Amino acid sequence: MRDSTLKYLLVLPAIVVVFATAIWPLIESLRLSFTVGRLSRPGSLEQYLGFENYIWAFLYEPAFWNSVWVTAIYTVLTVGLTTVLSLGLALLLAPGGRFRSGVQTLLILPFAMSPALIGVSFRFMFNPEFGLFDAVFGALIPPLADVSWLVDPVLAFAVCVMADVWGWIPFLTLVLIGGLASVPQDTIEAAQVDGASGWRVFRDVTLPQLAPVLAVVVILKSIFSLKTFDQIFMLTNGGPGTATQTLSHYIYFNGMKYGQIGYAASVAWLMVIPMIFLTYAYAKFVFRKE
Amino acid sequence: MLGRRRKQVIDAVQLALILIAILIMLVPIAWIFMAAFKNHIDVFQLKLFFTPTLENFGTVFEPPFFLGHKLMNSTIVAFVTVVLAIPIATMAAYSFSRFRLTGETAMLVVILATQFVPAVVIILPFFVMFRDIGLLDTRIGLILVNLAIVMPFAIWMIKGFIDGIPLDTEEAAMVDGSSRLQVIRNIVLPMAAPGLLTAGIFCFIIAWNEFLFALILTNKDAVTLPIGLALFKAEEGDLWNLLSAAGIIIMLPMFVLALIIRKYFVQGMTMGAVR
After folding, report:
1. Which residue from A78, A26, A35 is spatially nearest to A53, judged by alpha carbons?
2. Do strands B237-238 and B233-234 pair parallel, antiparallel, or not at all (unpaired)?
3. Which of A6, B76, B78, B122 could pair with A25 in a Cys bridge, judged by C-beta atoms 3.0 to 4.6 Å apart?
4. What CATH number does residue A158 fall under?
5. Residues A170, A221: contact at Cβ < 8 Å?
6. Size of interface A-B (CB pairs under 8 A)
7. In this predicted model, what pLDDT tens digit does every residue of A100-135 receive, in sequence order?
8. ipTM, 2 decimals?
9. Digit-coded pLDDT (tens) for A76-98
10. What is the C-alpha separation between A272 and A227, in angstroms, rounded?
């Protein structure tokens, strides 16, 4: 067989799979978003409404806006905290040596943990009666001694953010250690010889060279924060009330619990839009390396 | 003198910060490990010292929990997903790596982008379709949708490995009269084998930990381990000792697998944006 035919035959199965498992559902979701789309009424999946589902979400659903805000604040906090803390930890661990390399190996563990399990374990850790973190926080910060973390809307949200940050710091730290390793050592040494302080070296030499890797970290983490579902589901299930209901959780609830799949699809598509921008930004970094 | 003193202080502070970080990282995991060996009374107390028991690991496999069934579902689903994904991804990765294709960049971007599509968007139409054709609560259904999340990783990761294999041996064999398919089978596959294994393990972990698809598509027969965690609730609340034992069964194999492929973790997750 000639290479000119073979090269397309080789990619064909992959393209078919990607089309069937990702592109088709995206298009079909878009179609569903314009229908009445009740799971309990079979004909309603072909009953078209135009943009009514979208208008409904925007104008008549405070719960939709609530989940938009929850997701936005959650994303900003988790991306900000994980990035800053990971950078700090990466700087501490980057020098290498036996001890630091050992710690780097340990960093793999939280990342191999299923997010659902992270949600479960944080619910355990913040149990008001026998939760370890609950006890530690209570001892360190006396006003927090008698609170029920997952019953208070603000504190429950804080626990969700902590669980997320805990789960992502190890991985992002590893990414940033990789990034730091590629910063040329001689420029740092030159700056040190010139008498620059540690902070100046970091700000003027290391940070600018690390910028592309930091950008990748921020984009990647933003994408995963926006999609967050598993942990929240296991940790608070969106509660108390809707205090921790992210967009994914809101879509799941409307689509699966209430059977309003058309409406759920419209909100799902509203969520795809920011993803397109983030993916575009991410793709630029990936292809710059090619 | 003063300079050396200052350096010692900085070193000590750094060491302390690293130790605090390890502590924060390991304590939740360690706490789950301990809880799994506590009996149903000790687990509801903040005890550091207790008489360990293996009882929980037996109870989770008994009725009404039947964790063995979920363990089997998870194993089959993750394994078959990987066995389907890796050959398909390898073929595509080889082609992307070695040839110029019309629309190659577009295809690679689309494949990259599918990783970022929220799972909740993908699952709505699949739920409707599977309900209509009877694939709800089946392992086959779950395997099909799992392909959506592992394929982009697998293709990009394997492409990275094949990009790293030098062309000369392949070219030499072609000059000697081997066909392209022979070259792939006899030269590329053996050289790429460690990479394929790494990608396979990576995809296995992703499929094993997958939650949202299984939550929506399964309710009894095809329930996987992460969904099975929801079982350990009684009227009086969560059965933390059993939950922890189940948690260990879920995470321990993944820890082992992750440690095997730790060198490639970053590269795999970032699709080569960071090497």
Report:
1. A35
2. antiparallel
3. B122
4. 1.10.3720.10
5. no
6. 276
7. 888 888 888 888 888 999 999 999 999 888 888 888
8. 0.90
9. 999 999 999 999 999 999 887 88
10. 10
Which amino acid belongs to residue B247? G
Please provide the CATH number assigned to the domain covering B56-269.
Answer: 1.10.3720.10
| Radius of gyration (C-alpha) of chain A in whole angstroms | 23
Query: By residue range, what is the domain housing residue A207?
Result: 62-118+152-288
User: Is B22 an interface residue toward A (CB < 8 Å)?
Assistant: yes
Phi, psi (degrees; rounded to nearest 5) at B118: -60, 135
Buried b (16+ CB within 10 A) or exposed e, A244-277: bbbbbbbbbbbbbeebbbbbbbbbbbbbbebbee
Domain layout of chain B by residue ranges: 2-52, 56-269
- A100: its two tokens: 């630091």
| Cβ separation A121–B101 shorter than 8 A | no
Q: Which chain A residues contact residue B226 at CB under 8 A? A: 114, 116-117, 230
Q: How many structural domains is chain A composed of?
A: 1
Task: Let me know: does B150 contact B203? Beta carbons within 8 Å.
Answer: yes
Spell out which residues of chain A touch residue B152, defining contact as CB-CB under 8 Å: 18
Cβ atoms B77, B139 nearer than 8 A: yes
- Helix, strand, coil % over all residues of chain B, rounded to 5: 75, 0, 25
Q: What does the pLDDT look like over B96-132, one tens digit per residue?
A: 999 999 999 899 989 988 888 899 999 999 999 999 9
B 155-184: CB under 8 A from A = 155, 179-181
Q: Does B240 contact chain A (CB < 8 Å)?
A: yes
Residue A227 near residue A78, CB atoms below 8 Å? no
At B125, the amino acid letter reads: P
CA dihedral A216, A250, A131, B259 (to 10 degrees): -40
